[in-house]
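Following up on my earlier thread - several people asked me to post the actual chain instead of describing it. Fair enough. Here it is, all 624 residues.
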Amino acid sequence: MRAMDTAFAPSPAPSSRSPAPSGAALHILEHVFGYAAFRGEQQAIVEHVAAGGDALVLMPTGGGKSLCFQIPALLREGTAIVVSPLIALMQDQVSALVEAGVGAAFLNSSQDMDTARAVERALYAGELDLLYVAPERLMTPRFLDQLDHLRDTGRLALFAIDEAHCVSQWGHDFRPEYLQLSILPERYPSIPRIALTATADRQTREEIAQRLNLQHARRFVSSFDRPNIRYTIVDKDDPRRQLLHFIREECASEAGIVYCLSRRKVEETAAWLQEQGLKALPYHAGMTQETRAEHQTRFLREDGLIMVATIAFGMGIDKPDVRFVAHLDLPRSIEGYYQETGRAGRDGLPAQAWMAWGAQDVVQQRRMIDESEAGEEFKRLARNRLDVLVGLVEATTCRRQHLLAYFGEDAGPCGNCDNCLHPPQTWDATEAARKALSCVYRTGQRYGAGHLIDVLRGEPTDKVIERGHQDITTFGIGSDLDEKRWRTIFRQLVAREFIAVDHERYNALRLTDAARPLLRGEAEFHLRLEREKSRSRSKRRSAAPLDIPGGIPTTLFDRLRAWRVATAKERNVPAYVVFQDATLREIAIARPQSLAELAGISGIGDRKLEAYGEAILGIVAETT
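Reply from S.P.:
Thanks for posting it. Predicted structure:
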């Protein structure tokens, strides 16, 4: 490797850079990235894009999305342009690519002019396989002129649009700059594009396709399941103490993220955790850019650090060894919850998603929606998404089933969530559910839950009188239950798909085919029984996430991690860029005795084998 700025390095290019058969893709996968086989639809995506096709890819966090554009970039002639929303994500992915021997660089506002010019010279010299840019940079006249030059000289390989859900105006991570990316197919119609995201329901998928002009792109939708994550949701009862108990009992000395709704709560929670002897840092948009950058860098490079943050932190964080994500407040939506919890266990090893919630969280979220300056349509969708999330936290059956059902995926009980492991107490709400369904039907399937509850409880509101609903048979038949209980019943009827929400008719509720057996008395309906407030604490302790099986002591794993920290510090990169925990764990189990044996470990490509192989074998030999 020639001496040059560490932001990029020339690639040991494969013999052919034209679209190639699967053998070439597999060769790059093994020898550059160190993996023996593709997972899921990775190979189909790689071959489709390498051959010049457009693609819309939905794949869970940790599922290997980056390889879906990185390998086609190495197979096609020229430089791939990767649109990425965050500086930290660019830097991490470029560092990892450089470690693997790939010619990669980024252009963003963190660089001085000399560094940026050096990257541009490398681009013109054909030394870059991938160049990461923010959407704002890509749309500048100067950069578009550079892209025109690459196109005209046949050296523009492809466009990859990462975190593509940022284009959704209804989403939780909307970035208006992403809307301008629709210019790409108009200006560069012959250049393939791949848009990737880990978080998108059906509505968001259609919006991505429309706004990025990818209506005719081939779609690849992988399973949203992350079986290595254990989902646990508890009722709030001294939430700070509950959080501390969870961390100490389940994830001691491990890296994690704690999400809070407000900046003040972030600061107070981080300070309190520090007082309890834990390494914790705050992160929110109210801090200076320098402080945020410092805290993020520490989180990425130090082991066992806890980041307490608002949702301003996390998108694009590539740290694979986050062992837990905790929520001290209810997220805004299922999408937000899925994406935030998905930052745990990206390496595929066991991880935890823990949340404490209370009814006041729902009240606060509703107030925030109602008081926002958004349009009524946005508010209706936000309220519905919040209701779906509340349906998840109130669920008595498998959490994972509910989560996956939202994304249109069927699944059986997972055996790895709190409801599966410790089934909650329930009460028989069958009769109440039948009353609710009957009320939906008797009112013409044209109204939302608020009006239906008024009818069921016999409330003579102006709307009830105006519609004549005080005269129907379901008026007042549910007066024995309060509004809170009825809202829970309706949320669960929606969550379990007995009722559907009609977004085109102002969130009106309508019966589904699944409602018939319940209405006929052929099915039962049970709801979670609210727990009594208690100060008692369970003493359940799960197995350590990184236990080494087969009776092998963890000494070797610990020594490998210590070596990795020192090596990463010397190279000025995050530790996981050198090797992920999963790779070190496999080394500790296999105890390779030669470079050939070490080459068979997942995550060790040719470049890393050459750079680190002898050092690793030395540590293995020294550790008994």
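The two ends are 36 Å apart (CA to CA). That should answer part of your original question.
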